[in-house]
Write a structure and sequence with these properties.
Number of strands: 8
Helix content: 40-55%
Order of helices and strands: EHEHEHEHEHHEHEE
Number of helices: 7
């Protein structure tokens, strides 16, 4: 089996996901570009290859069972194993003025849609890829979360944490909780799983508002994806270290 490490990044055709792919590619990883939109996916792969990244396209809709199964089968054929999984794909859900999701008027279908992608999609992809990850000598899983998932920060009136996001923020808290459960299940194995906060990054996800570049936003995820054996697991990180739950 090839010595080149294999990674899959979901939602990798643009923004933070794309830059995670760039960063892993620069470290010598062969990277699967997971994305729903065929044109954007192929364009990203072409651009990555032009920049010297060993990238390949992975058609992947994290909300679809068959799509995820097909993606795992493709990676099986392409590489035979998986060393790194970065669950980056995520959505904010419909918002009102000021990028607010008011809990008192929130459409429950918005909550369902956000959780389906941000939480259930992560579980679906992770479990489908686990047989491939278990073939790696040092498997790593990174779930891209957000500082707004921190209940400690959300509950502190002296911390500016942004607008009320009654679907998105709890979905990321849910994702963090799921990450901890995986870490407990993986205890005693070589699988390390952590959550990463990219910070407020100027991408189309944020309407291009934010002080950080996609490259800066990708840094923590890349670091967690390349942790040495014996590194931390079941934790929540940003650039400056651990974020309180």
């Amino acid at each position: 089996m090839s010595e080149t490490k294999i990674a899959l990044v979901t939602g990798a055709n643009k923004g933070i996901g794309y830059e995670i792919t760039v960063g892993l590619g620069a470290l010598g990883y062969r990277v699967g570009v997971g994305a729903r939109d065929e044109a954007r996916r192929e364009s990203a792969v072409e651009k990555l290859r032009a920049a010297g990244v060993d990238a390949f396209a992975v058609a992947l809709d994290v909300t679809g069972d068959q799509s995820v199964t097909d993606a795992a089968e493709l990676i099986e054929r392409q590489a035979g194993r998986l060393d790194v999984l970065v669950n980056n794909a995520g959505i904010s859900g419909e918002t009102g003025p000021g990028w607010v999701q008011d809990p008192t008027t929130l459409d429950l279908d918005v909550v369902r849609t956000v959780v389906e992608t941000n939480v259930i999609g992560v579980i679906r992809v992770t479990n489908a890829m686990l047989p491939l990850l278990r073939r790696s000598t040092s498997p790593r899983i990174v779930n891209v979360s957000s500082a707004v998932a921190s209940l400690t920060r959300q509950a502190d009136p002296d911390i500016e944490i942004g607008p009320i996001m009654a679907a998105y923020s709890p979905s990321k808290s849910f994702l963090n909780a799921v990450t901890v459960q995986y870490a407990r299940q993986f205890a005693g194995t070589n699988i390390l799983i952590n959550a990463a906060c990219p910070g407020l990054v100027a991408t189309d996800f944020t309407g291009f508002h934010g002080p950080r570049t996609p490259e800066q936003g990708a840094a923590t995820a890349i670091r967690l994806a390349t942790l040495p054996d014996g590194g931390p697991t079941g934790s929540f990180f940003e650039d400056d270290g651990v974020i309180p739950w």
